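Worked problem 6 (solution included).
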Amino acid sequence: MLLSTLAVTPSFALADDSPHYTVTFDAQTQSAGVRLCLAQQHASVDFAADSGWAMRFATELKRDSGAAVEAGEVGWTARDWHAGECLAYRADLRAIAAEHKPDVGWQMGADFIAAPQLWLLRPDVQGAADAELRIELPPGWSISAPWRELGREPVPPSATAKMTKQPSAAALPTSIRFHIPNTPPDWSAAVAFGHFGEERIVLPGGVLRFAVLEGADATQRAKLRAWLERVSKAVLSAYGRLPLPEVQVVAIPVGQLGVAARVGRAMNPEAVHFGQSIRGEGNALELLVDPTRPAEEFADDWTAVHELSHLMHPYLGDRGAWLAEGLATYYQNVLRARSGMLTPAQAWDRLYEGFKRGARAQSDESLDEVAQNMHRSHAFQRVYWAGAAYWLTVDRDLRRDTHGAMNLETALSRFRDCCLPAYRQWQPQDFVARLDTLAGSTVFAKRYGEFAQMRRFPDWEKLYSDLGIRVDGEHLAFEAAASDAAIRAAIMAPRDGTRAADTTRH
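Solution. The predicted structure is:
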């Protein structure tokens, strides 16, 4: 009886089912009509919103079959799902943008950002599969997303099919297809809609897709583009290639972020207010900038080089924050010296001042423990600068042990080839172990074990002494006869092969 029952019961696919989204953007209401289609049959499908709070952004849910869609605490359930069936709903992008919060949404005049995890429902049957999305934008509208573009074309409206004179391509809606890599659902991402143009900065190893949102005029946008080109060339001085094949970069003018941002700018004027690396559904950088500031202030800023340096490592979680932030902090100085944005002496001085600040941040906790609680304790100085001391130490050790044949960027370049892009979290001990394997060393894991358990700031003064760097009055002095003087010079030395960036626009 059991065998005969199994024989007539429909078989439900166990393979991961790749979602296919079709999105039609409505500029007047700043909403999107979404169709989410799945190829396979399933006993039930759970469509998750980012949270119960986020469920309010999706309304009018309907299945092709007309069957019920049951609301739960953090999403909806559809039972007896048919192969090839679609779920249709409306996403309120304007309401997301109106939240005016990081990692949620921003409204900047006519341009806005809406985090995709709040409006692209995720089916549980997706498993490890990637997704594809096709979006239709009205004339004059653009999109900036972390997703990989597969192609675009104008979409002639059916109403013009019998017209003798067809409208130009610029006056037609645009259809764009994207591939969306499968990243953890709690990773943040940003999708921008507006009237901006997206610049493509083509570099060895990859492309930066750069968008400046409303709040900058043509001259200011050109200044920001030139700045990004220069800082991206600084990052090439690590190992000659962009760490990832494609990166979304969004510049948000702070003048468009409301009264609080404008007051903050007046009290503390600066070219770059904030930057962050975001890894959800791809890889992206967000930069909050004041485009009215002079080009010299942008040239002197470290933020963009810091955030671009984060592209060299995978996401390492809270416990690995000191490794991640330490690498970016170390390289924000070293790479700017290699590319001529700083002199070597200035870079060593910035590291020196940072190490002093980090050493003043006292704690009884280990570096691992401090990193895990960093956003609650605000112990950023210790985490960032102890991490920078780790990377300087392993860079010195590798060069010393191999008589200059191996260095930090060689190991990171090999990691790029084997393991990036990384769409899952890496445990910090696994990251350093892989670097050791790639470098043929034991330095990374050995020093990681020491630094992770340190309850005091690392002995950076001994490190500086070995490198032949000492304080001479108000300045640093550099001793040519020091044991590691040649390593000191090699760390900051310019790199060959950093070709100029090519820029295109669409």
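Discussion: The chain is about 35% helix and 25% strand.
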